[in-house]
User: What shape does this take?
Amino acid sequence: MNEKPREEENRLRTVALAIAGRLRAAGYEVFFVGGCVRDLLLGTDPEDIDIVTSATPEDVQALFARTVPLGARFGVVMVVEEGLPFEVATYRVEGGYVDGRRPSRVSYSDAREDVLRRDFTVNGLLMEPETGRITDHVGGIADLHNRVIRTIGEPAARFAEDHLRMLRAVRFAAVLDFSIDPTTFDAIRRGADAIHRISGERVREELTKMLVSRGARRGMELLADSGLLARLLPDVGALAEVSQPPRFHPEGDVWTHVLKMLELLPVAENGRVDARLAWAVVLHDIGKAVTRTEDERGVHFYGHVREGMRLAEGILRRLRFSNQDTDAVLDLIRYHMHFMSVGDMRPGTLKRFLRLPDFPLHLELHRLDCLGSHGMLDSYEFCREKMAELTREDLHPARLIDGEDLIRFGFAPGPLFREILTAVEDAQLGGEIEGVDQARQFVLERFGDRLTDRSE
Ligand code: ATP
Ligand code: MG
Assistant: This one.
């Protein structure tokens, strides 16, 4: 890995140590806890460091200059030191999960009780900040060693308290490349139905974390095996039934195709995958289950793009994606079949396609689509060559005429303007016209019959 994250990581730890030191000097107990301890023991860089302490939120606020109460009711205060935020939580127990989603009350307790309320043994380890010494009340060290996700306590009871934990188990197994303890997995299978009670946002966050990891494919398989997929994304689950023509899809059914693509998702230097691309992989062919037909000429999926966009939009809205992300994923689906015809496109049409704002992402989806099936990259290479050949100016030439020119020519403002200006740009992109005079001539020849009566 490059140096910068390493430095960042050291700084994170140094500042966290300073916070711990200040709390300790004031007479309180302090530990690093949860995901950061797990990650440090696995030798990966934690993204944040969570701190638990015997100090109350008021004590914490009194000790540090910059604090933000994160629902002081839940005993968590954000401490900001050197511009870095840390969650400092008072030891607590949660009680009375009335709805399988959120605790209805919390009360302060000790370090042991604090970890017993946490979800999985590997997320329940305490680390003494200065020495790195581990306190393990939950059997987390053994499970970390054996790479197992196991609930703290009886799985069915813990999943009934908070149904999201079922999905988190799958997410951690995928991201960390761990197995799920059979008893824990069995409890997910039995309890999977309850996942529908969890809000779209929380589901989206877990699924996205899973999909942008190297374990995306395995995560999807675990989701399917656990029964969660059929509840969360039934249209994706249905793809396993959808067989395809072997000439274009030697890999098999649509589900297999999607899994192969997930496995090939490109991982950036920060270890992450573009979330929009990952979601587009999952959703790009969901229209196939409902559009499949077969006749003497073979298997067809007429209209699968339009149908897929309709289904995908429903899913993205249900999972509360931002409008921006929803549009980006829908566009990826919308254009994914355009690549098949890039070689036959008129020059203007091709240039419009190549200058789509997220074209590199579209191209990447297409590359995965090919590699996850027939493996032929002709259209991909064709686009790459064109991109290398064409300048910014070729793709975005300066406008030859505008609305004011059209008024001067004698056209009345209205929807016609857009039509004319698009036609002019098409002709320009296609190399049919050059310069203002040719543009003017083109407009008068093509649209002259729609000039408004000049006598008016
Ligand atoms: P990462 O941040 O890498 O996704 P993490 O382990 O830090 O992993 P978070 O969701 O940030 O996961 O939660 C921090 C810690 O809080 C967890 O390690 C776990 O101890 C506890 N925790 C989080 N969500 C739950 C939950 N739904 N039920 C019980 N404990 C939880
Ligand atoms: Mg975390």
